[in-house]
Amino acid sequence: MATTPRDTAANQLLEYSRKHEDEEKTMTTSFGTPIPDKNASLTVGYHGPILLQDWILLDELSHFSRERIPERVVHAKGAGAFGYFEVTHDITHYTAATVFSEIGKKTPIAVRFSQVAGELGYPDTVRDLRGFAIKFYTEDGIWDLVGNNQPVFFVNDCINFPSFIHVMKRNPKTHLRPDYDMFWDMISLRPETTHTALILFSDRGIPASYRNMHGYGTNTFAFVNNHGKLVYCKFHYLTNQGILNLSSEEAQKIAGVDTDYHTRDLYNAIENGDYPSWNFYVQIMTPEQAAKSPYDPFDDSKVWLHADYPLIPVGRFVLNKNPKNYFAEVEQIGFDVAHLIPGIEPSPDRMLQGRLFNYGDTHRYRLGVNSLQLPVNSPFKVHSYTRDGRSTINSQGGTPNYHPNSFKGPENDRRAQALSPSLPLSGVAKRIDNGNDDNFTQARLLYQRVLKPDERSRLIQNIASWLKPTNSVLQDRAIVNFSKVDESLGQQIREELNSYVTHHVDL
Ligand code: HEM
């Protein structure tokens, strides 16, 4: 009988044992003492009870029961790798960030890909956005660019994010997902979701692999140059492997056979020396252009049109190293949008503003107060006044733990001071719902100008197949929004739905 060849990932243990053939190691407890017998607990006679003094067993069991930590509340399922970012073009006139300081400069990076809504064991090939987060280990500290594989996001005020995630996740009563009523209820009530929904249901809603997709910082950031001049910017990273997607049918089939399809692909590619790479670009908008922009440049449900704000090449990044231990380096990696370096600043983007708080907060819960001392999260140097807390590793020697002091403690950084922009702010504090700011013009451009006819018809089928299980009131409401993108889009979704039996429910 013919056998399927084993891939690199399947041979991981075999490879390990080959490489370490000549080594002889003996076992220890986690506190380093030798273990006489790993396969027998300490009992009183053959059938006697196990003794509490069996500290070898206690060491094993107590660690085991704490092996899992809370999974990420979103983006739980993912894969990670390491590599470097290299500058290929000069953008020092826009930013003083040292990561971009000279052509040819290389900075080590970590990348984590993920899907958004599923839990840790969820199949990789579901229809969902994909996370694409990059950690730059720069000489000025950690810069985390926590992006997705789509240039826009569903909602544009951070206060709506938890509700939006709830409708993507499980129904709290039935514990089932997707719950089509929850999903379409929110999508149809918040029309700013339309633009991203079109991308979700397009071919790009299910990438063929993590290597075959682009990445986007999505939110708007700001650059500050050495003269203190501020411009707004968006980040794009375009795949050199080409865009490849899976059809819904292919994806469903794969999900039944290999839940870790994307994770396996990434691991094997890197292990086999087929290193994936992306080219890195920025878009730049001056504050004067932002003030006159016909669309809100700080609204993440909108793109900046490339015709007006072209992609400016900056560099490339390559992933050439798999993690040595998944848990230590991928499960425990923490990307935080607030990890910015001098020369890169936030913008008034409302989603970004909420994210600046939320990631550090969730890390303190998920990973603990000292997660930045874990090797994968740790910057090259830290001279701070924070101390102690659970799992402290770095005590910072004998330097003073208070400021100001007279004992050579670290002082303010002059360069960072010069690069901190003065932001003129004024206004009346007020809750202003921004969900109705022209949600259809850009979605229309995407539908009419970007998508080809065959892509449009697959989009319609995908939307209809998700609309089919919900009730007719929500279907009608969703179709009203899709018709505002393009009359014929709404019509064709309606026609496609007419081939199914739908359930009418009064709401
Ligand atoms: C107000 C809006 C948002 C909030 C409150 C939020 C919150 C979170 C939280 C709590 C996590 C889990 C982090 C962890 O446990 O380490 C997370 C992960 C993530 N978020 Fe967001 N998020 C928001 C919007 C976005 C947007 C717009 C994007 C994309 C541009 C995005 C991309 C990601 C990615 C890629 C991850 C996974 C990071 C990793 O691989 O560890 N998020 N988000």
UniProtKB/TrEMBL annotation:
<dbReference type="InterPro" id="IPR002226">
    <property type="entry name" value="Catalase_haem_BS"/>
</dbReference>
<dbReference type="InterPro" id="IPR020835">
    <property type="entry name" value="Catalase_sf"/>
</dbReference>
<keyword id="KW-0349">Heme</keyword>
<dbReference type="GO" id="GO:0042744">
    <property type="term" value="P:hydrogen peroxide catabolic process"/>
</dbReference>
<dbReference type="Pfam" id="PF06628">
    <property type="entry name" value="Catalase-rel"/>
</dbReference>
<dbReference type="GO" id="GO:0042542">
    <property type="term" value="P:response to hydrogen peroxide"/>
</dbReference>
<comment type="similarity">
    <text>Belongs to the catalase family.</text>
</comment>
<dbReference type="GO" id="GO:0005739">
    <property type="term" value="C:mitochondrion"/>
</dbReference>
<dbReference type="Pfam" id="PF00199">
    <property type="entry name" value="Catalase"/>
</dbReference>
<protein>
    <recommendedName>
        <fullName>Catalase</fullName>
        <ecNumber>1.11.1.6</ecNumber>
    </recommendedName>
</protein>
<feature type="compositionally biased region" description="Polar residues">
    <location>
        <begin position="391"/>
        <end position="404"/>
    </location>
</feature>
<dbReference type="InterPro" id="IPR024708">
    <property type="entry name" value="Catalase_AS"/>
</dbReference>
<feature type="compositionally biased region" description="Polar residues">
    <location>
        <begin position="1"/>
        <end position="11"/>
    </location>
</feature>
<feature type="active site">
    <location>
        <position position="148"/>
    </location>
</feature>
<feature type="region of interest" description="Disordered">
    <location>
        <begin position="1"/>
        <end position="34"/>
    </location>
</feature>
<keyword id="KW-0376">Hydrogen peroxide</keyword>
<dbReference type="GO" id="GO:0005777">
    <property type="term" value="C:peroxisome"/>
</dbReference>
<dbReference type="InterPro" id="IPR024711">
    <property type="entry name" value="Catalase_clade1/3"/>
</dbReference>
<keyword id="KW-0575">Peroxidase</keyword>
<comment type="function">
    <text>Catalyzes the degradation of hydrogen peroxide (H(2)O(2)) generated by peroxisomal oxidases to water and oxygen, thereby protecting cells from the toxic effects of hydrogen peroxide.</text>
</comment>
<dbReference type="GO" id="GO:0046872">
    <property type="term" value="F:metal ion binding"/>
</dbReference>
<feature type="binding site" description="axial binding residue">
    <location>
        <position position="359"/>
    </location>
    <ligand>
        <name>heme</name>
    </ligand>
</feature>
<feature type="domain" description="Catalase core">
    <location>
        <begin position="28"/>
        <end position="411"/>
    </location>
</feature>
<keyword id="KW-0408">Iron</keyword>
<dbReference type="GO" id="GO:0004096">
    <property type="term" value="F:catalase activity"/>
</dbReference>
<feature type="compositionally biased region" description="Basic and acidic residues">
    <location>
        <begin position="16"/>
        <end position="26"/>
    </location>
</feature>
<dbReference type="InterPro" id="IPR018028">
    <property type="entry name" value="Catalase"/>
</dbReference>
<feature type="region of interest" description="Disordered">
    <location>
        <begin position="386"/>
        <end position="415"/>
    </location>
</feature>
<feature type="active site">
    <location>
        <position position="75"/>
    </location>
</feature>
<dbReference type="InterPro" id="IPR010582">
    <property type="entry name" value="Catalase_immune_responsive"/>
</dbReference>
<dbReference type="InterPro" id="IPR011614">
    <property type="entry name" value="Catalase_core"/>
</dbReference>
<dbReference type="GO" id="GO:0020037">
    <property type="term" value="F:heme binding"/>
</dbReference>
<keyword id="KW-0479">Metal-binding</keyword>
<keyword id="KW-0560">Oxidoreductase</keyword>
